[in-house]
Write a structure and sequence with these properties.
This protein has 426 residues and is an all-alpha fold. It folds into 2 domains: 5-59 and 115-207, no CATH class; 236-405, Hypothetical protein af1432. It has 22 helices and no strands. α2 runs antiparallel to α3 and α3 (46-58) packs across α7 (127-148). It starts with 7 loop residues before the first helix and ends with a helix. The chain binds fe (ii) ion (3 copies). One fe (ii) ion binds at residues 236, 268-269, 351.
């Protein structure tokens, strides 16, 4: 039931990431814990309880798509029944679609897809429908819990369930009733991070090797979600992935290294998911304080990627060191000289090259030539690697262009279509 062994780091990563996302992190963790307890009560089985916990953490993944979260903010201001219905269809459809696209996550797509359906539209013979119904009960309780603060009376929680009894399979209802009657449940929720670290994260599994194709798909997922936060960066990570791989090839690195450079590029800004959207989306130059906060994204990239860290070929370091500089002036570790591997140096050059050639609200994109000139100054100051830059110059001279039709551009198209179809917004 629980993902195959090789998928466990992927799940731990996803559960971890979900908990940090501003706006839905706390809700995701609360639902995760409640689903874990209710699943345990229902199945009397540890691995199914874990499955429920993971499904609970992932159930609202559809909200990661900016247009969907934007719609939910609008509803907060302007309450509209029709729009609420649309949002419900939209985030479940998109969440289900996103999860179904990725090896290692697809087994949770049904839960995302069905978690707002009442029991009479579900099939009790289908385990995924049972989990969807369990998550639905946890979701309802979590929403009420957030509204009334941590001092929730057990009787109040029971009342909430009673009121909505016909939404649930009787067995799910009874399991949920038992769970909310325990102090242990509510005290666990008071500190979800602690509970989650002790009871979910640690038990999902440790240091398994992950299939490269799974990593690649998850990388596309992260790149899509992170980069679509701002219309100016929609192709940012994918371009860095591509050019890093090309520089690696130009410098004679092995094909395995080239592939991991690509993967590192896809993941390098993952930590931006933990940064407030208002900062990521800000259409102008950031204030000093906002910039300070923005810099912290690499700290989260390190934390998230710890789940994938490997002994040899540690691509997670290449991904999270893209703001370090050879003269020690970078962040977050202030690494210097030899402490920075060639692959990390490639990512550093690639990140600046792509960022400067992208459009920004406060400046127009630089040409390849201008950007190379800028990078040469950085090399002269001792910040960037001269050999890496030479390889990039050769690539540009030989007519390098960024890729156009890609897995991410296809994902953007499909999600945009779903938003139009279910959300009625263009
Ligand atoms: Fe939901
Ligand atoms: Fe970055
Ligand atoms: Fe970046």
């Amino acid at each position: 039931m629980v993902g195959q062994e090789s998928n466990t780091p992927v799940l731990r990563f996803m559960v971890d990431v979900m908990g940090y996302i501003p706006g839905i992190g706390e809700h995701s963790l609360t639902v995760s814990i409640l689903s874990y307890f209710i699943s345990y009560e229902f199945f009397d089985d540890e691995s199914r309880a874990l499955y429920g916990g993971i499904a609970g953490a992932l159930h609202d993944v559809g909200y990661l798509v900016p247009k969907v979260s934007q719609m939910s903010k609008e509803i907060d201001v302007l309450y509209d029944e029709n729009m609420i219905k649309k949002l419900s269809d939209l985030h479940t459809t998109i969440g289900g679609f996103i999860l179904s696209n990725f090896l290692g996550l697809y087994e949770y797509s049904d839960v995302a897809f069905y978690h707002h359906l009442p029991a009479d539209q579900l099939d009790i013979m289908n385990p995924n429908h049972i989990f969807a119904n369990i998550v639905s009960a946890a979701d309802l309780l979590s929403v009420r819990f957030e509204k009334f603060g941590s001092d929730i009376p057990k009787n109040f929680a029971k009342g909430v369930l009673e009121e909505n009894k016909d939404q649930f399979f009787p067995e799910v209802f009874n399991a949920a009733l038992k769970v909310v009657d325990r102090d242990y449940t509510w005290w666990s929720i008071e500190d979800p991070t602690d509970f989650y670290m002790r009871n979910l994260s640690m038990r999902i599994g440790k240091s398994e090797i992950i299939d490269e194709s799974i990593l690649m798909e998850l990388g596309y997922f992260m790149a899509y979600i992170v980069d679509s936060k701002s219309p100016f960066t929609r192709k940012h990570s994918e371009r860095i992935a591509d050019i890093s791989k090309e520089i690696g090839r130009e410098m004679g690195l092995s094909s395995k290294d080239q592939m991991y450079l690509y993967i590192a590029g896809l993941f390098h800004d993952s930590g931006k998911l933990a940064i407030e959207t208002s900062i990521l989306e800000k259409p102008g130059i950031l204030t000093k304080k906002e910039y300070g906060h923005m810099r912290k994204h690499v700290f989260y990239t390190i934390k998230f990627l710890e789940h994938f860290s490997m002994e040899e070929n540690d691509w997670t370091k290449w991904a999270s060191q893209h703001h370090e500089r050879i003269d020690g002036s970078g962040y977050p570790l202030r690494l210097k000289g030899e402490e920075i591997s060639l692959q990390s140096r490639i990512l550093q050059v690639a990140d600046v090259f792509v960022a400067l050639t992208e459009d920004r609200p406060y400046r127009s994109p630089m040409s390849f030539e201008e950007t190379l000139k800028f990078l040469l100054e950085e090399v002269k100051k001792g910040k960037m690697d001269a050999e890496v830059l030479k390889s990039l110059e050769r690539l540009v001279k030989n007519g390098y262009t960024f890729p156009s039709k890609t897995p991410i551009s296809e994902m953007i198209e499909t999600v945009d279509f779903l938003i139009k179809y279910y959300g009625g917004i263009s």
